[in-house]
Amino acid sequence: MFTFSFNHVAISVKDVDRSAAFYMKVLKLQEIENTASKSKTRWFSLGEGKQLHLIPRPNAEIKTNKAVHFALAIDDITTFITHLNSLNIEYTDWLGTPSKDYIRNDGIRQFYFQDPDGYWIEVNEDF
């Protein structure tokens, strides 16, 4: 048996500066040093040693669907929804109903929104 721990998620982005600004403004992520290379890839802390890496790929075709997403848990989901609304960022439930969150069968509240490249981000209160 192997023992793993989650380290990072990396996504290709068309404009790394635009995406970095989005993640700093919307998720309030702190940029950290890219210790792997001198490339234009930008790294952000997700807390507890977990990271988000934004890899610039200006010519890449980026295809997304809601089933391929990353999820972040927060302890005050209502305040975060207010924050999204203040930034005019649309969010939906799984079915795509605008401005709607929902409660999963296990009682966890969640919703989805997209970044500038169309990647889906789930926010839930499974904290």
UniProtKB/TrEMBL annotation:
MF terms (GO), sorted A to Z: dioxygenase activity
Signal peptide: none
Pfam families hit by this protein: Glyoxalase
Protein source organism: Wenyingzhuangia marina
Protein name listed in UniProt: Catechol 2,3-dioxygenase
Annotated keywords: Dioxygenase, Oxidoreductase
VOC domain ranges (all copies): 5-126
